[in-house]
Design a protein that fits this description.
- By secondary structure, the protein is mainly α.
- It has one domain (2-180).
- Helix content is 87%, strand content 0%.
- The chain has five helices and no strands.
- Helix 1 (5-27) packs antiparallel against helix 4, helix 2 crosses helix 5 and helix 3 crosses helix 5 (152-180).
- The radius of gyration is 19 Å and the shape is flat.
- The mean pLDDT is 85.
């Protein structure tokens, strides 16, 4: 049990790194008003997309949780819901950060490729650190509570279900947009 402190500390370190990078990105000024304006429109679109996906996922989550609770185990259903919420929180953080990072990277690219590269890498790192950090902390705490790895399967199922839905729907929208422009047959 004493070894479980390692993933908790590692997870909190990842969350701290993600928060630091996000605050640093948020504080960075964009020199072009036009890029800032376009970035704000993209951010509005991202929020609209995420809210629609959130509604769809939250509509299905209670149904799946009830089925899991009655057929398998109530704790599996609880960890499933925690997995869904963890995935949704990190998706929101990652999409918000990547929207900001994309605008800042484009702005930096007008002056220096190296600076733009660093902005892009650090902006992408926010999502990776968030997913890793929150998952490590939540899974470690759940293992401490249950003292059994079996209910943790629900967490993985919930997190992957939410992520899969977000990924597939964004991939579908992206592909259909390219089909409209004649890029796909």
């Amino acid at each position: 049990m004493k070894l479980l402190i390692i993933p908790v500390v590692a997870g909190l370190t990842c969350i701290g790194a993600a928060l630091y990078l996000f605050l640093r990105l948020r504080a960075a000024k964009i020199s072009s008003p036009k890029m800032s304006e376009i970035g704000s429109y993209i951010a509005i679109g991202v929020r609209a997309y995420l809210s629609r996906q959130l509604r769809a996922i939250l509509l299905v989550t209670p149904i799946v949780a009830i089925v899991l609770g009655f057929t398998l185990n109530i704790w599996l259903a609880v960890t499933f819901v925690l997995g869904v919420f963890t995935s949704l929180i990190t998706a929101y953080m990652g999409m918000s950060a990547s929207t900001r990072a994309n605008v800042k990277t484009a702005d930096d690219a007008t002056r220096s490729v190296t600076t733009a590269f660093h902005t892009a890498v650090f902006g992408g790192s926010i999502m990776g650190f968030s997913i890793t950090g929150f998952s490590l902390v939540v899974l470690s705490v759940l293992y401490l509570l249950f003292k059994n790895p079996n209910p943790l399967v629900g967490f993985g199922f919930g997190a992957s279900l939410a992520w899969r839905h977000l990924y597939q729907s964004s991939r579908h929208r992206s592909r259909s947009g390219r089909q409209d422009r004649g890029e796909y047959p």
